[in-house]
Specification:
The structure is a homodimer of 343-residue chains. Among the domains of chain A are: 52 residues, 434 Repressor (Amino-terminal Domain), CATH 1.10.260; 129 residues, Rossmann fold (3-Layer(aba) Sandwich), CATH 3.40.50. Helix content of chain A is 39%, strand content 18%. In chain A, α10 links the parallel β8 and β9. The first copy, chain A, starts with 8 loop residues before the first helix and ends in a 13-residue tail after the last strand. In chain A, 51% of the residues are buried. At the A-B interface, α5, β2, α6 and α10 of A face α5, β2, α6 and α10 of B.
């Protein structure tokens, strides 16, 4: 906390020893089973001690505030994955009396430039630059200094950015399989060399190393998009490499694995355990059996981006910090012990 | 075509005897297997004869044009279903040199009013009012006359509106089951009395009537949201009402039916045929077996809304026509003949 600066949600979070997200949940009276009564009490006390006034701060004591923010996205607003990120930005904005304008540029530089010009004419208070998936981005010129990058990061750390901790999430997924006794664990990774594919492979290797299991490259296969390549990779890993469990790049790959295994008379998790990634609604939860997976923290990332942007607008931070949002394991019904006969 | 009015995409469509969507595909050189070479030739000839100049028209020969349109949505931009509608609006807008601003109001009247005020200050050329699902809406004041309603309609026909032909889609789904020889066809409908639930029930009855099959209310059950209620309804309809086929309100309900039937040792389509509705990506196509369903024409509806709005902005139409967009059957692997033993 800097003298003369407005108190921010992060100051409250620091004093109470919790995350900004928790402060937000408590002060906005959002029912959430993860926040205990004692924690809520501690947050309220900290807010009171610091005389934290979120709405006054956000509604703009500085001049030329329009109380509008802009979300520039590549493809995001037109994909199912956008929903929770955009929803979170809008929730935070609404609580702070801000209106959110979104433009999807479809990655077209001319559209991006037009949008930035239009938003600057309109004097928006700041920008969220949102990406479809975790990647390295080049930002368009003219954004000013009130910018936060969502689900991506810039080459040089000029602006705050929030990305999922893909490596930690993968480690959690594979650790869950190891904890059930599996030692031959396959990984069906994404075919394209994305940031996420690279980090999830690192997380897979981290978990094996921590449990003294030697990495075997025959247990890793890359699958092109679609059910069939995933089904084929899963069956090959079981039949040729003898794996008893599969970590899949994402939930769609895991569903492909289900199909392939079922066609070969193999049941999940009796014969092969499966863990996905994303926690995609109507995919992971609607699988039969319901899929154990790792949640991509879209809502938390959107919330962090919006709160960080509001803080920047209010002059409360100028550090280009990068937040790696934890990806938590969601246990459902696709993991069990290896079969006693070891097949 | 009116004298002195700009030539519109609909004029070209009428002359060529095709839909506006087809004209759009052809003139924008979008590869689409549904458009034959002969049709494409006819469209180009009509456009040439009428001296149709889409970009000149859209880029604004009238004064005070800002070449921006606004999409006001209730929940839509934060749901997976929004993707194709929003994507279509953006595709049409981009082809016409327009920038699209979106605001999700979460159905909050105050946010809606703020958004309308902000957009009017910005002098947007027109509004698309987009709904999460087919419903009757009350529009906020201040929208002006350049308004199109997407996936909803107003109580009185003041503005153009586009909705899915839910009734026709349901009729197509049930006709598919009848065509395979089924006569005992169950319907797992939605629990809430939505416009879609009402229309899909009408379509179910239409198809039965056309095939001389008597409506039996015991073959219809309403299920609350979630897998379990759908699973339960499907099993009850098979065991108690003796149905050999199921029409489901949507694809998620159909997946629930799959789960329930599988737990009872019943295979789809060997023992029970199933048809869904929506053609939800990663749900219908990722089901095992892949689900025969009816496509909700989200892309076509978004495209229609954007094109109609551009026409209104250009003064090319002032009729509050309502378009019922056809919902087409998508055949996959969940429909077969009834079992020979009639169970």
């Amino acid at each position: 906390m800097r003298a003369g600066q407005p108190v921010t949600i992060r100051d409250v979070a620091q004093r109470a020893g919790v995350s900004s997200a928790t402060v937000s949940l408590v002060l906005n009276n959002v029912a959430d089973s993860r926040v205990s009564a004692a924690t809520a009490e501690r947050v309220r006390a900290a807010a009171s001690e610091l005389a934290y006034a979120p709405n006054l701060v956000a509604r703009g004591l500085r001049r030329r505030r329009t109380n509008t923010i802009a979300v520039l996205s590549d493809e995001i607003a037109t994909t199912p994955f956008a929903s929770r990120m955009i929803g979170a930005i809008q929730d935070v904005a609404m609580r702070n009396g801000l209106l959110v304008f979104m433009v999807n540029t479809a990655g077209d530089p001319e559209t991006e430039r037009s949008a930035v010009v239009a938003f600057n004419q309109q004097q928006v208070d700041g920008f969220v630059y949102a990406c479809l998936y975790h990647r390295v981005v080049d930002l368009p010129p003219g954004l000013g200094s009130n910018v936060v990058v969502l689900d991506g990061r810039t080459r040089r750390p000029r602006f705050p950015a929030v990305v999922p901790d893909d490596r930690g999430g993968a480690r959690a997924a594979v650790t869950e399989l190891l904890a059930h006794g599996h030692r031959r664990i396959g990984f069906v990774n994404d075919y394209s060399a994305t940031v996420a594919a690279d980090l999830r492979l690192k997380g897979y290797r981290d978990a094996l190393r921590e449990h003294g299991v030697r990495f075997d490259k025959r247990a890793v296969r890359n699958a092109e998009p679609g059910l069939e390549p995933s089904a084929e990779a899963a069956v090959r890993l079981h039949e040729d490499a003898g794996v008893t469990a599969l970590f899949c790049f994402n939930d769609r790959v895991a569903i492909g694995a289900y199909h392939g295994l079922r066609r070969h008379g193999l049941a999940v998790p009796r014969d092969v355990s499966v863990v996905g990634f994303d926690d995609q609604e109507f995919v992971a939860d609607y699988a039969d059996p319901p899929l154990t997976t790792v949640a991509l923290p879209h809502y938390a990332m959107g919330q962090w981006a919006a709160e960080e942007l509001i803080e920047r607008i209010n002059g409360g931070t100028d550090q280009p910090r990068v937040c790696e949002m934890p990806c938590e394991l969601v246990r459902r019904g696709s993991v069990g012990p290896p079969r006693a006969d070891g097949t």
